[in-house]
Amino acid sequence: WQVWAIYILLAANLSEQQAPKQACPSCNDAQLCNCSSMGLDFIPPGLTAKITMLNLAHNRIKHIRSQDLQQAVNLRALLLQSNKISSIDEDSFQSLVKLELLDLSNNSLAHLSPVWFEHLFSLQHLHLQGNFYRDLGESSPFSSLRNLSSLHLGNPRFSVIRQGNFEGIELLNKLWIDGDNLSQYEQGSLKLIKKINHMVISLRNISIFSEIVRDLLHSVTWLEVREIKLAVETKSLVQNSTRPFRMQKLTCKDAFFTDQSISRLLVLLKEITSLRELEAIDCVLEGKGLWDTKEIARSGQSFVETVTIINLMIQNFHLFFDLEGMESQTNKLKRLTIASSKVFMVPCKLARHFSSLLYLDFSDNLLVNNRLDETICKDAWPSLQTLNLSQNSLKSLKQTAKYVSRLPKLNNLDISQNNFGEIPDACEWPKNLKYLNLSSTQIPKVTTCIPPTLEVLDVSANNLKEFGLQLPFLKELYLTKNQLKTLPGAAPIPNLVVMSVRRNKLSGFSKQEFEGAQVGAVHLSLMECHRSLVVSLLCILVFLVILILVAVGYKYHAVWYLRMTWAWLQAKRKPKRAPPKDICYDAFVSYSENDSNWVENIMVRELEQACPPFRLCLHKRDFVPGKWIVDNIIDSIEKSHKTLFVLSEHFVQSEWCKYELDFSHFRLFDENNDAAILVLLEPIQSKTIPKRFCKLRKIMNTKTYLEWPLEEEQQQMFWENLKRALKS
Questions:
Q1: Do 270 and 296 contact (CB within 8 A), yes or no?
Q2: Domain span at 432
């Protein structure tokens, strides 16, 4: 508690001396003004027509007045996110006819008024998420925003979407709705929008999900649904939908599926005949693959051509069934990605039915060589051209090459980041292989195992000391992060166009190494070409960094903090309590300068004129002149029986928050120490105290404190309780 008193008192004094002016001088030549995180309580005065961008984010602004932005007629971007805005005068934005971006997110707006946006004819991007409104009103707040391109709205309280809420909006590039707690959706509400390129909606209500999909099939190209927990849906997703359908891509992110819900969803999605791409990212599947494959097969052929699954979580994935019966659903698929999902095998029978698949990505999974024999069996993946097996558990390059040689049309293979460790002298590869990525595979050398048909070869990040292969068709060679001391010979790779040799042990090139051939472009690091220049630049950079650190330290009083920390460490070596003979005061009083009137004119008079009088220590009156302030505080606290803290909103908002990062890591109170007395000058909820002051929040929840009453008849009881606490 002693440390806490020192820091709070000094922080209060310093914050009052360094209090930010309610102005915004941070404008550059292009009239882009950055006034974010300056502790502003209102929009600064003096904004002119020259300003084109104004950033007022992360301040404490509560109200926007009519005159605040009246002169900023050329403003194109206004950032007001993360303030405390709860009210806006209706004509506050009236003069901003050129405004293109308005960000009011993460404020305290309880409603949205159409009048605010009435004159924003040029507005293209509007961010309203993270406020307190529960709905968008009875009509549309956006009816005058004819040029709107992106709209982000919603919050944890947002629960209702009504018909007419989006009237006036015809085309949107992106619509983002945070609707986790959306409970009411009037059918047809989103149908008014004719075209949406990308819509993101977080949603938990499955029935509302179905209604929204029906309303969006004719307008949305890409629908992204987040945080939904899909139940078994029985109604059709295209019922009463406007045709023709436009939806081409459906993404589920952070969603939850069961075997039953995914089976039903696959059936329903076939009705959306325009759908070509399905994507699942960071989803959870609770089940073992017991899908209703008969119903899925009866529902007909899927139109989907691309499926992407990334980081799918399946508990007990090793018990997952082989999806027998799904073969009829794979014929039309052209691109399949299942990454970071613990795939360890694909049954041969299923793999043979991917007859149209051109691209397959199994990166970051659990494939091993003996299972790869089953996954790439004879006649599997017959049309495959590109295969990514990077970041798996493959150990044998010879076996891997043998299995992929069963893919007759394969020309692009990525087996990087597998731990092969060694490379044989001969390997069997697909006849048409043109691209091979063997980077980060721990191979110590290159041999004739590398196929001569290649046009692009990447063997970066291995331990290669030389490269002498004959690759007559090679056009691109990547040798970054190896141990090469000389360049590869030019004759064996006559058609080479691009070669990367960065981060090797090359010390120089000879003309003979290039055999007289003209090099079109060489990209070398500065260190390799201009060593002395680089050293000079590094010295200058170090000097500038030191200069900046000195400047920052001076601006933010780093020396002051270091001295104070040293004083605190010295104080920690002393006994926690001074001997009784050294106690000079009944209490040391810690308070904000903003509360000095109450402390000095009311509390001090009441306590020091009591009978018997109390001896109080006040920094203004009792500190030793000429002595460093930290030493003064430490000595005064040690010589005081109690420490009395006068808490108010001034502490919480003006001082604690500003210095939270500086003081949060120091110990504030001892668990069993009763020498601190808390006096609340005005009601403060413990949750308003910065979270890093966990000790003080805990004490306010568990320790009895005194609250100053406004009623005169209760004040006498307050003084008696305070005097009793001081005597204890």
A1: no
A2: 334-508
